[in-house]
């Protein structure tokens, strides 16, 4: 009634995008034809698409802010984007085909290796809404961890077999990590390569550091890139190379000599502080009273049983190790000399008579005297101050014999022989004595009495 008209809706599906022309004709109730009229419209049904999302840089770690450039097939509006759970903040792009912004790499687990962008809400100038699109990869930086090396100290037990191992995250099975060992003293290095296992772990072939300077810091540096060519940050771990064995410097006894059963003091000095030292003097155990964890150990020991042929005992020290676990070699050190002894044979059967007086021989034996050592004889009497002194050499069998002494003119009485001497180690034997009675007065006939005096 108001002159308006409306056609039934038409389905133009399948028509190509471009210009659509509507031409309308008609005649009224009097058969008079109206002039044909046209109207045009642009057919634009193609949805805008996301061409690419490019990150700069293309990798990073949680919390890093990176640049983002999104490119669309046509100019668009109202694009929103996320990297994982992090929103992209656009700084430019509205009504253009290229959008620029930045995003913070979101939190991740060790199992995560990458994040993709999800872009939604974008529409072209004709109102065509683009489909949600996932594009662009941000790789998460891989990481390497080195386990402590030999507990932080490489000792003599470890030095030929130094193992460096550790773990990775975001490395595929069979990727490689590279180890470089160096020290703080010289230019020596060792390089090795290991494959990452399925659980992310790696372990280098054992390295032999024999000949590397002792007491220096050894640094292990491990590098590697994962399956995406993303390099992990180089990591280092250090250990001190301490392979020098502790040594026994000295064993000092106080006194330095004695006889079986005597208890003497012992002081052991080591090159460094040690633990768990044990020591023996011959077959006798040293009892330590102090020393554990120090370089100076103090104790005592009983001089063991011995034979006359024994002249000395040495200490044997074992089991000692330093704070780094280096075990010292068994060491023999320090001498305890056994006290020598002298014996005097009976002199002239105990009586020096007129037949003996011009040829008094004093002899005897020794123990723990070397051949050619000297013993000294002093003869004295119980009546006056006369003495005789002589010297004799000890023979190979330990015996000695003084040159015969002439005691003519000595008063009858008791004669004492005192013999002293020190052996080849300067150890004095206890002085020994032997006595004999000097009786040289000849008996005389005092009288002859007959009974009866005649007959």
UniProtKB/TrEMBL annotation:
InterPro entries: Ig-like_fold. It comes from the Bacteria. This is Bacterial Ig-like domain-containing protein.
């Amino acid at each position: 009634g108001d002159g308006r008209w409306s056609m039934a809706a038409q389905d133009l599906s399948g028509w190509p995008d471009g210009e659509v022309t509507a031409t309308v004709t008609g005649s009224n109730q009097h058969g008079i034809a109206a002039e044909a009229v046209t109207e045009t419209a642009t057919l634009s049904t193609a949805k805008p698409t996301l061409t690419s999302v490019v990150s700069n840089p293309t990798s990073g770690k949680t919390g890093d802010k990176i640049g983002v450039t999104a490119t669309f097939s046509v100019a668009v509006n109202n694009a929103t984007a996320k990297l994982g759970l992090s929103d992209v903040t656009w700084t430019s792009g509205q009504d253009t085909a290229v959008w620029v912004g930045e995003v913070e790499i979101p939190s991740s687990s060790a199992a995560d290796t990458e994040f993709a962008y999800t872009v939604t809400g974008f529409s072209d100038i004709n109102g065509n809404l683009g489909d949600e699109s996932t594009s662009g990869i941000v790789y998460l930086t891989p990481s390497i961890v080195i386990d402590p090396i030999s507990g932080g100290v490489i000792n003599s037990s470890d030095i030929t077999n130094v193992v460096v191992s550790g773990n990775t995250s975001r490395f595929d099975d069979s990727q490689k990590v590279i180890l470089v060992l160096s020290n703080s003293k010289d230019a020596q290095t060792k390089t090795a390569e290991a494959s990452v296992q399925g659980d992310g772990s790696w372990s280098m072939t054992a390295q032999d550091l024999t000949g590397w300077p002792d007491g220096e810091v050894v640094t292990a540096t491990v590098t590697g890139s994962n399956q995406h060519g993303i390099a992990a940050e180089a990591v280092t771990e250090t250990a001190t190379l301490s392979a020098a064995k502790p040594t026994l410097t000295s064993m000092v006894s106080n006194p330095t000599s004695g006889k079986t059963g005597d208890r003497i003091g012992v002081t052991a000095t080591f090159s460094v502080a040690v633990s768990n030292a044990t020591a023996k003097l011959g077959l006798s155990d040293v009892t330590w009273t102090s020393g554990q964890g120090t370089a100076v150990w103090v104790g005592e020991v009983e001089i063991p049983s011995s034979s006359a042929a024994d002249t000395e005992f040495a200490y044997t020290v074992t089991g000692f190790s330093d704070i780094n676990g280096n075990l010292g070699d068994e060491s023999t050190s320090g001498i305890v000399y056994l006290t020598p002894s002298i014996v005097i044979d009976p002199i002239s059967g105990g009586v020096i008579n007129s037949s003996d007086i011009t040829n008094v021989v004093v002899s005897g034996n020794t123990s723990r005297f070397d051949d050619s050592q000297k013993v000294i004889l002093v003869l004295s009497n119980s009546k006056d101050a006369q003495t005789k002194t002589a010297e004799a050499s000890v023979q190979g069998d330990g015996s000695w014999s003084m040159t015969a002494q002439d005691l003519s003119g000595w008063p009858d009485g008791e004669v004492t022989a005192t013999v002293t001497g020190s052996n080849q180690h300067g150890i004095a034997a206890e002085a020994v004595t032997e006595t004999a009675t000097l009786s040289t007065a000849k008996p005389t006939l005092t009288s002859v009495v007959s009974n009866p005096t005649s007959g």
